[in-house]
């Protein structure tokens, strides 16, 4: 389709009157930023869709930004795509400023590369594997460490080419167990992923910090309230990592931070200091606890605190040295066991609570499990390492033991950090300096993560170079992800009200909406004139020229969260008092002649 007929289709008949602009590319681009609602594909819904749980998912569907294709897979409609592109633009700008170079890697990745890194087996069911017509195995990329290492290994020669940071903005596929919350946890989603290569660890640290501050800049520009926290390295691996979390009640992650110092970590990694009274040593003895299977019941019956009990949980392990085995893990009765910490302590891929039948195989039974004499590996939380006078299950029906000393009676157990920190625990980072800092918790949406990977991928994939002394050396690597499509949901979670989304100017699908009230020729032509003026001024404008009631138009404009609304009707024109409203707040009535200037000054003020 030629540019002119394309523009005529989207702008309407009037487009043909701007013939001169069709040869002037920059202005033509500005025209594409404008749209008549009557020709625009933005199907809005009056009611909340039944299957949407969180506000961002509800609003994205209602406002016609996205539509579901299948579980965790969505269409981006024009409105949604415009926001996605705006976020991408900010990410691109900041990554470029930070010295990273954009490339585009394939979505389809051959199994051989994943076999080299060891992740073909390890990655689990999230990796969508398939065979092509030649029975060759491939996968859809959930992340691109293998592919980028393969590329760089073939091109890298000398230390003089390093450091180098390469990034892409691309669609990923992860066959998530529980895709949910719309764009928040999809199976197909858009990620910015960057990979840096270095001659040594010191250079990697510099880039890690560079990416850290770049992420802070990006999330600030997106207008988000966020926090960077220490993080577990998960399936990506490596030796150091931080996640960036947008603070929101709907967040799937729990983060812990100090009331006093800058300590902040995902609870999957967070540590704290628990002040627990020490209990008297006593003889190890059996006590009868008929039908008392819950910690609370036993504590109440014996008149002790729950912290004096040992809670023993039995897990089935997948991956690592204990693959396929049953293990026991203990925390204090009033603590919770952190599953990710346990998996890390075992170097396992997955740990799942075992079923009752598994208890039998290790010589125990439900409700009375204790750490003594089990026929399996036992891990014990560090807070119990020196514990004496404890109460635990006796691995016999209706029976517990008291006077348990961990060091004496469970001497073979491995001590590891297994407990999940709790609000009000003392902060391990600053408490020792007498600060009285304590742990607070908040929910977060993970929108980015940075990893210092070392040589985890560069070694197996052979990313080698000649160092300053002419020797072959293995490159050191970092990787840095941002959930670009998840960010759309995260921004909405923080920026909405009862009427709909509230977009910051930099992200809004359109900066201005002109709402024409009524069908009078005067109102339509005044609206069209303003529409053209704003287009000429390079403003992204949606003209609601539909034959709908004003109420419907107001509701849609609010639902879509467009930042500036200009209302043009006969009454306003007669009085020369045109209403200019900001979605986030104030409204004013001004003369028609000063509307464009007012829009400019609002935009200058809020951007
Ligand atoms: P999560 O813990 O939420 O599953 P992750 O730690 O596995 O995420 P990374 O490998 O760190 O994800 O990917 C980089 C970024 O991609 C994440 O910080 C997140 O913003 C985004 N992301 C990851 N998984 C999804 C998903 N299923 N849907 C949308 N965005 C995602
Ligand atoms: Mg992550």
Description:
This protein is α+β, with helices and mostly antiparallel strands. Helices cover 28% and strands 28% of the residues. The chain is built from 17 helices and 32 strands. The radius of gyration is 30 Å and the shape is globular. The model is unreliable at 1-31 (pLDDT under 50). It binds adenosine-5'-triphosphate and magnesium ion (MG). Magnesium ion binds next to strand 22. Magnesium ion (MG) is lined by residues 243, 446, 449.
Give a brief description.
With 607 residues, the protein is an alpha+beta fold.
Distance between the termini: 36 Å
Helix fraction by DSSP (H/I, runs of at least 4): 25-40%
Bound molecules: adenosine-5'-triphosphate, magnesium ion
Q: What does the largest sheet look like? A: 9 strands, mixed
Q: Which parts are unreliable, with pLDDT below 50 for 5 consecutive residues or more?
A: 1-31
The total of helices stands at: 17
Strand portion: 25-35%
Gyration radius over CA:
30 Å
Q: Which class best fits the helix and strand makeup?
A: alpha+beta
Mean pLDDT: 92
Number of distinct beta strands: 32
C-alpha geometry: globular
How is the secondary structure organized here?
Blueprint: H1 3-11, H2 25-32, E1 35-36, H3 55-62, E2 66-70, E3 73-76, H4 78-97, E4 101-102, E5 108-110, H5 111-117, H6 119-122, E6 129-131, E7 137-140, H7 145-155, E8 164-173, E9 188-198, H8 201-221, E10 226-230, E11 240-247, E12 253-258, E13 264-266, E14 285-288, H9 295-302, E15 310-318, E16 326-332, H10 339-346, E17 350-353, H11 356-361, E18 377-381, E19 390-396, E20 399-404, H12 406-409, E21 414-416, E22 439-454, E23 464-466, E24 472-474, E25 476-483, H13 484-494, E26 496-497, E27 500-501, E28 512-516, H14 521-536, E29 541-544, H15 550-560, E30 564-568, H16 570-574, E31 578-582, E32 587-590, H17 595-606
Parallel strand pairs: 1-29, 4-8, 16-18, 18-21, 28-29, 28-30
Antiparallel strand pairs: 2-3, 5-7, 6-7, 8-9, 9-25, 10-11, 11-22, 12-13, 12-22, 14-20, 15-16, 15-17, 19-20, 22-25, 23-24, 26-27, 30-31, 31-32
The structure holds adenosine-5'-triphosphate (ATP) and magnesium ion (MG).
């Amino acid at each position: 389709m030629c540019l002119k007929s394309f523009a005529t289709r989207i702008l309407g008949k009037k487009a043909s009157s701007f013939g001169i602009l069709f040869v002037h590319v920059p202005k033509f681009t500005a025209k594409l930023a404008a749209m008549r609602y009557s020709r625009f594909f933005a199907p809005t819904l009056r009611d909340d869709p039944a299957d949407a749980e969180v506000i961002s998912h509800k609003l994205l569907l209602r406002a016609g930004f996205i539509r579901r294709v299948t579980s965790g897979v969505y269409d981006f409609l024009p409105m949604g795509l415009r926001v996605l592109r705006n976020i991408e633009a900010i990410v691109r700008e900041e990554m470029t400023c930070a010295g990273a170079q954009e490339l585009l890697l394939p979505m389809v990745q051959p199994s051989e590369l994943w076999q080299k890194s060891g992740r073909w087996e390890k990655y689990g069911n999230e990796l969508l594997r398939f065979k092509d017509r030649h029975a060759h195995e491939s996968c859809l990329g959930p992340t691109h460490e293998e592919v980028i290492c393969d590329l760089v290994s073939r091109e890298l020669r000398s230390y003089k080419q390093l450091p180098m940071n390469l990034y892409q903005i691309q669609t990923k596929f992860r066959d998530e167990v529980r895709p949910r919350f719309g764009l928040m946890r999809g199976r197909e989603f858009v990620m910015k992923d960057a990979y840096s290569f270095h001659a040594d660890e010191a250079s990697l640290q510099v880039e890690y910090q560079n990416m850290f501050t770049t992420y802070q800049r990006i999330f600030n520009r997106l207008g988000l309230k966020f926090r960077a926290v220490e993080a577990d390295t998960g399936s990506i691996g490596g030796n150091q990592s931080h996640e960036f979390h947008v603070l929101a009640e709907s967040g799937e992650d729990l983060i812990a931070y100090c009331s006093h110092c800058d300590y902040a970590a995902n609870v999957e990694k967070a540590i704290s200091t628990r002040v627990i009274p020490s209990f008297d040593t006593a003889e190890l003895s059996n006590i009868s606890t008929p039908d008392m299977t819950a910690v609370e019941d036993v504590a109440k019956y014996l008149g002790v605190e729950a912290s004096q009990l040992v809670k023993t949980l039995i897990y089935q392990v997948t991956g690592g040295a204990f693959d396929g085995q049953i293990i026991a893990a203990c925390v204090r009765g009033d603590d919770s066991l952190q599953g990710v910490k346990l998996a890390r302590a075992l170097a396992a891929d997955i740990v799942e609570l075992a079923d009752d039948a598994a208890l039998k195989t290790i010589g125990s039974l439900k409700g009375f499990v204790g750490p003594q004499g089990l026929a399996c590996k036992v891990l014990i939380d560090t807070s119990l390492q020196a514990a004496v006078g404890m109460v635990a299950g006796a691995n016999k029906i209706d029976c517990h033991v008291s006077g348990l000393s961990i060091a004496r009676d469970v001497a073979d157990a491995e001590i590891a950090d297994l407990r999940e920190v709790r609000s009000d625990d003392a902060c391990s980072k600053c408490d020792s300096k007498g600060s009285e800092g304590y742990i607070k918790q908040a929910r977060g949406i993970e929108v980015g993560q940075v990893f210092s990977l070392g040589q985890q991928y560069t070694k197996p994939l052979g990313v080698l170079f000649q160092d300053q002394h002419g020797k072959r050396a293995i490159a050191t690597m970092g990787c840095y992800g941002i959930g670009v499509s998840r960010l759309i949901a995260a921004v909405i979670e923080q920026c909405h009200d009862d009427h709909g989304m509230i977009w910051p100017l930099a992200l809004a699908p359109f900066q201005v909406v002109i709402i024409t009230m009524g069908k009078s020729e005067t109102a339509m032509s005044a609206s069209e004139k303003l529409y053209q003026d704003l287009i000429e001024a390079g403003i992204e404008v949606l003209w609601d020229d539909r034959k709908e009631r004003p109420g419907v138009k107001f509701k849609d404009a609010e639902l879509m969260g467009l930042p500036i609304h200009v209302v043009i009707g006969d009454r306003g024109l007669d009085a020369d008092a045109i209403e200019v409203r900001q979605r986030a707040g104030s409204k004013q009535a001004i003369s028609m002649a000063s509307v464009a200037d007012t829009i400019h000054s609002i935009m200058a003020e809020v951007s």
